[in-house]
Amino acid sequence: MKPIKYQKAFDASGNIIDINEVDETRRDETFTCVGCGQRIYPRLGQSRAHHFYHKDGECSSETYLHQLAKKQIYEWFNSGAPFLLKMPATVVCSCKDNCTFYNKDACIHNIYPGQSDSKEYDLHKYYDECLIEEKVGNFVGDIVLRNSKTQRVLLIEIVVSHPCDPEKWESGEKIIETHPISNETQILELIKNGFSPSNCRFSASFKPQTIEKKLVSSHMSRFMYFGKSGKAHIPSPFPTGDLEYDTQFSIDCDHLHEKKNKFATKELNVVGDYLGFPSSFQLGLLYMHIHYEVKHCSICKYYSIEDRFCPLSKKYSTPAFPDGPEAKECHYFRVMNYQKEEVEANVFEV
Question: Which of 66, 177, 280, 349 could crosslink 157 through cysteines, CB 3.0-4.6 Å?
Answer without folding.
Answer: 177
